[in-house]
Amino acid sequence: MNTPEQLLFTKDHEWVKVEGQEAVIGISDYAQNELGEIVFVELPEVGASFQKTDVFGSVEAVKAVSELFMPISGEVLAINEGLSEQPEWINEDPYGKGWMLRIRIADASELEQLLSENAYQEFVK
Amino acid sequence: MKTIPLTPVHEALGAKMAEFGGFRMPIEYSGILDEHVTVCQRVGVFDVSHMGEFEVEGVDALAYLQDLCLNDVAQLSVGQAQYTAFPNERGGLVDDLLVYRLDVQRYWLVVNASNIDKDWAWCVQRRKGAVRLTNRSESVAQLAVQGPHALDLLQSLCALPLTGIASYHFVVGEIAGLSNVLISNTGYTGAGGFELYCAPDQVKALWDALFVAGADFGLKPIGLGARDTLRLEMGYCLYGHEIDEDTSPIEAGLSWICSFAAEKNYPSKDLFLQQKQMGVARKRIGLRLLDKGIARQGYELADAEGRVIGVVTSGSISPLTREGIAMGYVETAFAKPGTEICVSIRGRQLKAVVQRLPFRT
Lengths: 125, 361
Fold this sequence. Notes:
Shape of chain B: globular
CATH architecture of the largest domain in chain B: 2-Layer Sandwich
Order of helices and strands of chain A: EEEHEEEEEHEH
CATH architecture of chain A: Beta Barrel
Number of helices of chain B: 8
Strand order of the largest sheet of chain B: 10-11-12-9-3-13
Order of helices and strands of chain B: HEEHEEHEEEHEEHEEEHEHHEEEEEE
Oligomer: heterodimer
Structural class of chain A: alpha+beta
CATH superfamily of chain A: RNA polymerase II/Efflux pump adaptor protein, barrel-sandwich hybrid domain
Largest sheet of chain B: 6 strands, mixed
CATH superfamily of the largest domain in chain B: Probable tRNA modification gtpase trme, domain 1
Radius of gyration of chain A: 13 Å
CATH class of the largest domain in chain B: Alpha Beta
């Protein structure tokens, strides 16, 4: 379980947890709550590479669809396969079981542009 | 933005609120999927006080309404309601609505919240003969109690025998100690139940009484989100989606509300009759997605070769089966149930099959 204090955020409501050369990516508790019950998740193939701000997938809630944006550039090492059957994990545990991607960080300097938890909380207020 | 009398109640319940039809409305409380299932299996209450109500009264009320509405208003007895629509002069619809016959020469028109101003102007402009029109939208609140336990719940609050109120009939009487409530066996969910029209200063007491009695029935508050998935599963049209100023009732599959009786003189009558006899180029269909995804309003529908053959007007998932379901319009050749077509979703083609409505029986 990740606590939000360990995470970095984007204004598009993704979170990033840095683990050495790799990073785990998901969407924030605020985002899942705004979307409501998530019923489908579309994630990329393992091995795909994305630039920062690229669309890497989408989440479908009952009322609306929302695109997912890469918080930093990198190559996808793993996706959370469980979400295809259990998309509600994103609602139930957005910082834990609801993770979406594990990537290899392409450019660590991009991390500097992300928001701390405090700054993100200010942003969504 | 306009508010409804119970806005503070919904906010206190933690509802997600959003603008709908110019009103600040509850969209969901416990979640759309849970609320949907509650209405299908138990009972839920919707605050639909945003709906508009126009009163039409006078010796010429019937003649006036016959020229305004598609359906044959002369079929209504006092105490009966009817689904109908206002056609415009270019073969589309101004709005869909319910007509209630309150008295021999007195009717109510219950219209969509988003169309109140437009409908009022339309009705006033076409007024003729001895007809008095009153816009009661601000002085009528409405709660819809829907689901298989709705009857038992309401009966526990009411001395009138509710089983005596047939579908699309109503009585005006006392419920929960409140007098002069219009109790209507109608709804927009397909789950059965009643719609209760009362004065704005009664609606808080009615809401509270429902929840006191409703504890035994598993009553929950239901937002507009589940109202939309419930009506979609039933294949009911929603104005601004399946029907609008440019969609004919014949294309929409609403020829059953179009009366072509000699005494009917509404706009576009000849055109609709011709469409009914000669056929239409496109038709409203139900669609079930075979691939995972949700088709949403405005997404294109295509044939196997990728040619665009139609458009989605509403889409969601079925909360019970978790399949994507939708309604839309396609060229008539593709409207037959069982026809496989594609939905274009963000550059991908998802497979879907035309399905007979309703999705839920």
